[in-house]
Amino acid sequence: MKLHRIVGRARKCGPSAMAAVTGLPTHDCAALLREVTGSSQIHGVRQDDLVAAMALAGWHCERAAHPRSARPTLAAWLRGHDTFAHPFILVVRNHYVALGDGEVADSGWLYRRRPMPVADAPHRRVRVRETIACRPADSARRT
User: Fold this and answer.
1) What tens digit of pLDDT does each residue of 114-136 get?
2) In this structure, what are the phi and psi dihedrals at residue 121, rounded to the nearest 5 degrees?
């Protein structure tokens, strides 16, 4: 699935990664995160809260953590995974990055808000702490 261009008023990485995958504006993603967390503002997002907010948006997510001693670089992780099958949200340096259809998108901290080809992306040596595989909820039930 292709990533969407990140649009909206919220500039944090959690809502931006959600927006790239779901196609919702970042301020709507931030509203879903506020609903899940009960917080009045979103400054940082835990992975559990992100997965719960994605479920409210109609997406099924599966998490996979990488132990500290075996964290792959983004380049190494890409060699072993098919990003054309479905989108991923990766946790790198306590930061969320969206990957899908051979493209990467971000809040603007590591990568641009507009999806760009992974081959052209800088920071391919960054370590991947956790992987969140995302699928639309209706397709997750069929598989």
Assistant:
1) 999 988 888 889 999 999 999 99
2) -75, 140
**Which one, of 76, 93, 97, lies nearest residue 6 by Cα?**
97
> CA angle, 30 as apex, 112 and 38 as ends, to 5°?
150
Q: Report the residue count for the chain.
A: 143
Q: What sign does the dihedral 58-8-123-118 (CA atoms) show?
A: positive
The DSSP annotation for 128-143 comes to P-EEEEEEEHHHHHH-
pTM for the full model? 0.90
Residues in CB range of 84: below 8 A, 6 or more apart: 100, 101, 102
DSSP characters over 41-109: S-S---HHHHHHHHHHTTEEEEEEE--GGGPPBHHHHHHTS-TTTS-EEEEETTEEEEEETTEEE-SSS
